Amino acid sequence: MGLKYKNPITPGQRFQISDDFSDITKGKPEKSLLTRLRKTGGRDWMGRVSARFRGGGSRSLYRLIDFKRSKEMAAKVLGIEYDPNRNARIALIEYEDGQKSYILAPLGINVGEVVKAGAEVDIKLGNALPLRSIPVGTLIHNIELEPGAGGKLARSAGAGVMLVAKEGDYGTIKLPSGEQRLVHINCRATIGQLGNLDAKNVRLGKAGKMRHMGWRPHVRGVVMNPCDHPHGGGEGKAPIGRKQPVTPWGRPTLGKKTRHPRRKSSRFILIRRK
Q: Which of 134, 230, 233, 261 has its CA 20 to 30 A from that of 154?
């Protein structure tokens, strides 16, 4: 795990900072855990664009990740792999009965270590336990929001959530954003912080790498025509001509709160993110 700075012999390498993949121990993925990843190009089921500026991108196969960790059996780590679908690393594990699976690789886990899942397992890196069995002050990741539904929170590179309190049927967790929320103590989480901490410091260096990832150029509204965007039109470099910026459909943007005011899960949030 580290960064690689190239000698800028081309314009695209001048400001490029790439990953050296020094923490990868296994090259080819496990074929039995691969599935085809169908791309939509930002279109919905009717073929209309529902997410703009999507399309193209390099082909990649999806790795089936076990977010539930429901199999309560010891498993040995066979290797740390690169996943093109996420910035965190994944670990290939093999259970005692021979079944293989992918899990998110926490920081510091090594090949040959044994990980377990269950209510009575040790507080060890890579083990999955319900929150009621985890001591207060422990760093965790891959946290469920509903018991048995699979991990939803803290799944990106470097993510680490702290369990700060337990009271009654709920535990209080503090997210990296500063938000504190309640989670049921029967929800499972994995011990440790996720690896690949330098993912946030990687710089692509050229527009072509964004195209490889499936992101097309993002066009500003002020350079469009009035028929394409409310900010468009005018002679020369004109301002938006409104009190506040709006979306292409006239809705307020840039600071407008989009979370539903009566969302059911809002009652579990104790402190909003910073």
A: 261
pLDDT tier for residue 257 given thresholds of 50, 70 and 90: confident
**Sequential DSSP letters for 199-260:** GGG-B--SHHHHHHTTB-----GGGS-TTT-TT---SSS----SSS-B-TTS-B-SS---S-
- How much is the pLDDT for 184? 97
- The residue whose two tokens read 């992101």 is 215
Global confidence as pTM:
0.90
Domain membership of residue 68 as a residue range: 3-200
Q: Is residue 139 located within the same domain as residue 227?
A: no
Query: Measured on CA atoms in the order 175, 164, 181, 139, is the torsion positive or negative?
Result: positive
CATH of the domain at 230: 4.10.950.10
**Residue 260 burial (C-beta neighbours within 10 Å; 0-12, 13-18, 19+):** exposed
**Whether 126 and 231 share a structural domain:** no
In a domain, 103, yes or no: yes
